[in-house]
């Protein structure tokens, strides 16, 4: 039987023998959803890259306490750091991209407002949406076996983000680009992948990215939906430069 993996905020450094009182979210999942009881095993992670084997000491619907039994380094992280800059899509499409990109090994995500974005979020609604996206990322880490949690950055306007885009190999997907993604010959340590929303990028946005050293590349002869494009590109990048094979 598979041992459940649970994310818990770090707090104090965890050591073998330490008792950990789980947070409200983790308690709800362990006590109410999974209905686990004292003596059962689970695996905790807190984002530091380790797995913590633990035993439940006490479990109710309102409180769960576990004891740390073992600590092991999680070696599931890819050697390649990938920053996904994703044009915000409507509803479940964005959630799907976040979930699957975590499974494919992205290390950080910046949602972007672009000209054809079609999603309006400000103030409290924007904050809640960012928190929701971060929870989706955490759940994907629980499922996929990762112990480093990618950060979902505060959503930005495209021009604002381009002005401070990170160093390394920077790619923009463009179905009309001259160069296919498979022809990249570099061996980068960091890749920034910029994907447009459902309506794609405008020519002005492609040019703005080019002025910041983003290289336009294509995936093939067909035009892909934004969620398909992101996951296909991530798979190709991890196959060529990362640990997917």
From TrEMBL:
**Matching CDD domains, A to Z?**
RsmE-like
Q: Which SUPFAM superfamilies match?
A: alpha/beta knot, PUA domain-like
> What's its EC?
2.1.1.193
Asked if S-adenosyl-L-methionine is a keyword of the record, the answer is yes
Q: Which Gene3D superfamilies match?
A: 3.40.1280.10, Hypothetical PUA domain-like, domain 1
Identify a single GO molecular function assigned to this protein. Answer: rRNA (uridine-N3-)-methyltransferase activity
User: Which PANTHER family does its entry note?
Assistant: 16S RRNA (URACIL(1498)-N(3))-METHYLTRANSFERASE, RIBOSOMAL RNA SMALL SUBUNIT METHYLTRANSFERASE E
State its role: Specifically methylates the N3 position of the uracil ring of uridine 1498 (m3U1498) in 16S rRNA. Acts on the fully assembled 30S ribosomal subunit.
Family, per the entry?
Answer: Belongs to the RNA methyltransferase RsmE family.
Q: What is this protein called?
A: Ribosomal RNA small subunit methyltransferase E
